Amino acid sequence: MQNSSNLYQDSVYSGESLNSLKHGFGSLRFNYGSVFTGIFANDQIVTGTFVYEKDFVYEGQFQGLSRHGCGKFTCPQFTYVGDFVNDEMHGTGQLNCVGMEFQGQFVNGEVSQGTLTKEKSVYTGSFHSGQGFWYKSGTLKENDQIYTGEFENNEFSGSGTLIYADSSVYTGQFKNNMKHGSGKLTFNNKNTFEGTFNNDEFNQGIYTFENGNIYEGAFKNNEFNGKGVLKWKGGYYSGEFADDQFDGEGTICLENGLTVNGRFKNGELVQ
Fold it and tell me: Does the global pTM surpass 0.70?
């Protein structure tokens, strides 16, 4: 138990007492302007309302003069209702401020894990320690999209899955909110691309059409560009592409045994 003679110095008490100790209902007025009103037991504050200064108010349990236990703290920036330990938000609580609401776990005054609701988004997951509302790993619903995975600087970064508004789904690596690295994209028309991405665009991999046609090779601007192989029922083309067309040196092989080697331009054999 803290020494009340030191704890409550520079204050004036008025209220109930027992054996010369503050006990029961009473109030403390401090010289610096703060006021506590509530319940005392054996000279110690137990529970009540502490007005620190204008618009800074705590209502709840105490340990000495520290907020400790369940309580509500209100200030111009936010309102917090929940657990306190040693004068800090710690445990389960809800924090409301302009434009957002957080419900979840706090550690040493910082958000740790929970749900952050804003006007146009909802995030559920963990937060980077000591960085406020900076997402770490969880699920973000925003702009009719759902992302589940890792974050850096509140951007998709690391491994994750993104469900687009049109129901297309990407699972793989992200960087700076873009598909970057290895991954698989499944379109809502059932076409798929699996391979590597560079700054949100296809780089190298396999594109499979719903009808069974398959392209494997290089891409640029999300189109077949460079060397690759396009297979379809009845044959395939192996060679160079430009803007989704046979373009350059290549070979067409058909299942009937016909083989054509030559130079192509815009999908047509020219030499």
Answer: yes
